[in-house]
Amino acid sequence: MTDKPESMEVIRSSRDADTMRIDLERWLATKLAPDAAPIVERSEGTSANGMSSETVLFDASWADDGERATHHLVARIAPEGADVPVFPKYELDKQYEIMRLVGELTDVPVPEMYWYESDPSHLGAPFFVMSRIDGRVPPDVMPYNFGDSWLSAEPVDRQQELVRNVVDVLVELHSMPVDRLGFLEHDEPGDTALRRHVAHTRAWYEFAVNGLPRSPLVERGFEWLDENWPDEGETVLSWGDSRIGNMMFDGVTTVAVFDWEMGGLAPRALELAWLVYAHRVFEDIAAVFELPGMPDFLRAEDVRATYIERSGVDPGPLDWYLTYCAVQWGIVFLRTSRRSIHFGEIPEPDDIETTFQHTSSFEAFLRGEF
Fold first, then answer.
1. Which of 165, 180, 293, 334 has the most crowded CB, counting CB atoms within 10 A?
2. In this structure, which topology does domain 144-366 adopt according to CATH?
3. Annotated domain spans of the chain
4. Are the beta carbons of 287 and 358 closer than 8 angstroms?
């Protein structure tokens, strides 16, 4: 067995925590009553999951009707351009609005949304503030399927209960009225939501490789998608990053969903495929270290069957959508590896595709092996 890596921690930001605390305190004074006298008592980044927007946890107290109380809050901030962001733009206003609507129109648990701030002069970029929720998140570092995580320690029946609860979240999200979600439609050309979604991903890829070596594997993936286009199902809300690492749990009950940078409109099957493939990526990494992983967890056929059982709707086969997810993960790795190079965590590789952590399953999908 290959030894586990000693650390997989990643640097996400070059922002200074002390400066952030002071800036947040000054900003709060502009949002509250004149006599609120806000104090940000602590501010810190987090090593929690995610590689896109910057997450800052902070405690703030202020007076309201003469009573002073402490509030446990989270700020989500667009990353610095110099820190090699994953996405070409961060429309935090859209993220704020979809989370607000999810809270208003569904029973899906989301944090209470406090404020959206478009003025970058306060923290150096737009941001929003929401409540902080207590719970457990399946870790990315080390990945939960490496063993020694709370999730891998759960009995199999409890793991499957968690999967059912997660699928219930997706079923509920897919019930949202699409006519309230037009602001999530991608601007790229296409005669269906899925065509526009893929065109948007192509534009993301061009951003990722601008001035850099291209990825033959990702480009083969795009060709495969064009040659095997699916029968599209009903267009619904697509959370976009529906992996369990973006969910918080009390036991195995979902208590919060996070991270809406990839939100859009697409067929139901895309959401299910992303849920499955995000786990598949971690299984590929576990295989590199000759770890047993969790091969019976979040299997495509099980997730699809559970979705049909819980919703009464068949999303159709997931094969095409799994390959699409592999393409998207390739673009993610292009950007996150560039970030690691930027922060001096890894040297510049001769072949950027050697930084992909899902090559095994990606190539298998292109061979038609699902």
1. 334
2. Aminoglycoside 3'-phosphotransferase; Chain: A, domain 2 (3.90.1200)
3. 17-131, 144-366
4. no
Contact 261, 92 (CB under 8 A): no
Dist CA 312 CA 321 (whole Å): 20
Residue (of 86, 102, 48) closest to 262 by Cα position:
86
DSSP summary character for residue 97: H
Q: Is the dihedral of CA 250, 252, 253, 258 positive or negative?
A: positive
Q: What is the DSSP letter of 140?
A: B
Fold of 17-131: Phosphorylase Kinase; domain 1 (3.30.200)
SS3 129: strand
Report residue 2 as tokens.
Answer: 């290959």
Q: Which of 266, 262, 221 is nearest to 242 (CA)?
A: 262
pTM above 0.90, yes or no: yes
- Catalytic positions are 241
47-62 residue pLDDT tens: 454 456 789 999 999 9
Q: Is 269 helix (H, G, I), strand (E, B) or coil?
A: helix
CB count within 10 Å of CB 287 equals 15
